[in-house]
Amino acid sequence: MRTLTRSDTRGAVATGAVVFEAALLTPLLVVIMLGIVEMALLMRDNVALNSLIHTGGKAATSFAVDADRPAATVADAPATTLSDLTASAIEQAKTTLSKDSISELWVYEANPAGFPLRNGTDHFARCDDGCAAYAWDADAQEFHRTGGRLGAHDIDACGSSFGVYVKANHSFLTGVFQGVTITKHETFQLGDGADCRVATS
């Protein structure tokens, strides 16, 4: 029977150490790789959300109608309005972001900082006066007006500013990490032409 030499013992110890280190490091490396993939997907959704907001805002600024229309509530809001045009453009836009992940869409009268003018402070806590809120209907695959009141004369002058705010839920692909909420907003200005008045409500 062969007797184990000192070199054999050292080799066995070294092999055992390598196996032990691999057992410790492999899960860590897997988590790091998953984290890189997940962050890349999160960044992709952030970029897509920015693109959607820009698409919606630009579509609304390019449309002009008669502003001499009375303020409307959710129930009787006309179809061709600034907020509806924004929602429709986002609804129809091609994007890598699932529309089902969008939980809120606001179109609002903006203050100089880009937040809702009538909220009093710089936040998106509520959408009441000077704001129109929408929610995504996953079954109908379209936005439905859910609240707020944006009057026809809230945003009716050449050079007036309005904002678009979208909140979406990002679910991580692997399920290793918890999902996060991503929010974006952008301010747009109506054109300087003679027909730049728009109906907003």
Automatic annotation (TrEMBL):
Keywords assigned by UniProt, alphabetized: Membrane, Transmembrane, Transmembrane helix
Transmembrane segments: 12-37
InterPro entries in the cross-refs: TadE-like_dom (IPR012495)
Pfam family, one: TadE
Keyword Transmembrane helix: yes
Domain TadE-like: 16-51
Stated name of the protein: TadE-like protein
Source organism per UniProt: Nocardioides terrae
